[in-house]
Amino acid sequence: MDIHIERAVRHGAHKPWLAVTLSVLFAGLGQLYNRSYIKGIVLILLELAFIITFRDFIGLGLWGIATLGTIPRVDHSIFLLVYGLLSLIMLAIAALIYILNIRDARVQAERIASGWQRPKLRESMKQAYMASFPYLLSVPGFIMLIFVVIFPLMFAISLAFTNYDLYHSPPRHLVDWVGFDNFVNLVTVPIWNQSFLSVLSWTLVWTVVSTTLQIALGLFLAVLVNDRRVRFKRLIRTILILPWAVPSFVTIMIFSALFNDQFGAINRTILSALRIAPIPWLTDPLYTKIALISIQVWLGFPFLFALFTGVLQSTSQDVYEAADVDGASRWQKFRHITLPHVLFATAPLLIIQYTSNFNNFNIIYLFNGGGPAVRGQTAGGTDILISWVYKLTFTTNNYNMAAAISLIIGLIVIAFAFFQFRRTRSFREERDQ
Amino acid sequence: MSRRMRSILEVTGIYLVIGAMAVIIFYPLAWAIGLSFSAGTSLYSTSIFPKEPTLEHYRWLFTSPDSNYLTWYRNTLYVSTLNSLLSVIFTSMTAYALSRFDFVGRRSGMYAFLLLQMFPVMMAMVALYIFLNLIGLLNTLIGLVLIYVGGQIPFNAWLVKGYMDTISRELDDAAKIDGAGPIRLFIRILLPLIMPILAIVALTNFMLPIFDFILPSIILHDKSKYTLAVGLYQFVNERYSSNFTVFAAGAILIAVPIAAVYLFLQKYLISGLAAGGTKG
Which domain holds residue A65? Predict the structure, then answer.
């Protein structure tokens, strides 16, 4: 007992605030004061290495992102922007490590002050290993995420606030920060707001109509095939799932040949057999839209058919038998038992169907390139937002507008997804329940 | 009697609907298959059953010096295999950390990444292009794989974590009492139990590079570096009407093995989907 008190008093001389201050001054100093020599030296070396290696790069990057260059043909604004963003990311990581360093110094110093005995080196190494293990596991994935997801996102957001287009493209010209001008132009300048409105409305129509139709067809067929009088169920299901199994880029390109105005089989074989005049599938926006929706339904219903079949098979028959006893009609049973059950059980996946069709670039681009072209607009007749962004980026080099539109799309989709995810259980903490 | 008649009529109606759907499903596919066996390159003379079926287009793909088909196939298999392997490794590591350890920023980080992932990727591609250029991996298959692997982590780590959470922690505790460290616990105890979900991760990441078209078309420039999707698209676009029969042949050689795998695995895909999708 006496020894304990004595030790506590002796260690009372150890001051946590001093450890914190030292660690703020230079990473590792606090640890040296705490007499964690190995940790302290490693941290000092880390900070020195960071400063020596990245000082110039970060200096250039920060200057670059603030000014976007000052001399045309010498300063490349976009590279400077990229350097700046990378510098910000590195600084953020360094700041994180720095904060952990300060926190570590304080916690350690407080422990020493309250009379804690330092374990043997071997023991403390083991503790450090266990404490840092989850970080070691997630750091590789985290670093990749930063460069593949976060950094491109920061870049896109930055571009939305610059004037980077064909007339302001490095190295010949400089790019400047312009604030919210792009967003204002999108709403006020005629060539932009007409395109924007027509593309946005078609995107919404496309999303709602094609997704709803494919869900309805999938459900209809699932209920039909599930009828207990139908035989050869396995064979029928295999046939109906087939469109899902074929790579979609292959099918879309086959469809674009089938619908071709001149040599496509639909005009030449089917319609001529029915004595209907050829239809301009690829040159009239309305017909292209009809074709696109039909193809998407063809491509999309098998997945939903499979999903609904799975749910129907696992549904208990008791409720239906009870309904039979009450004399319910078939429609009543479908309307009040099957439909709510199936839709409720699959709601998250159905919502993902809507969001993925909202951004369904492949079908629009591969079928007709968003065309036919429309006079006086920057978007084609069947461009949805995402394919319009692609055109603006890679064809007409309106990077700034493309970025601004991306930002708007992103916010819509994220808001939609956010409310959805909040409702799913996987996100609540399992251990809290 | 009238009731039986009604039932027969109904069943006939159901079969008619299914038959019509079968025709609609098979027609485009059969047309493409017929095309691939038609002589010549003209699309005008084609029908589902070519009068003189020929293998010339298939032979061209494999033997012509102008054809890069085998190179593209090899590139695609390389990217697919590497992507599948690396994705499983990184995803399971991340998921293990998320499922079994408490650490700063665990939950909010997961949330944030899943939402950020929903951002449309077009602009990101410009950034990735510049970034790959900066580190010298532009126009390489490795660069493509790195982007695929990084991009798939949020969704798949979430998927695997969900699966891992259903495995009882008592198993962990028992192993720890027996003196197993975290690595041994993971490899010996958890890994075998999460194999089913890792199989799905491996399969989807194997398929992704075969289907994907935008990203490789931006990152890869040389014909000798193309994957199948980009290669075949560019091939058709060069000379639309005259290359289409060869395209059909090339496309069928991709579609058949993939469709076979899907149909073979349909039971597992459906039950996995139903379980994963409806649990939420």
Answer: 2-168
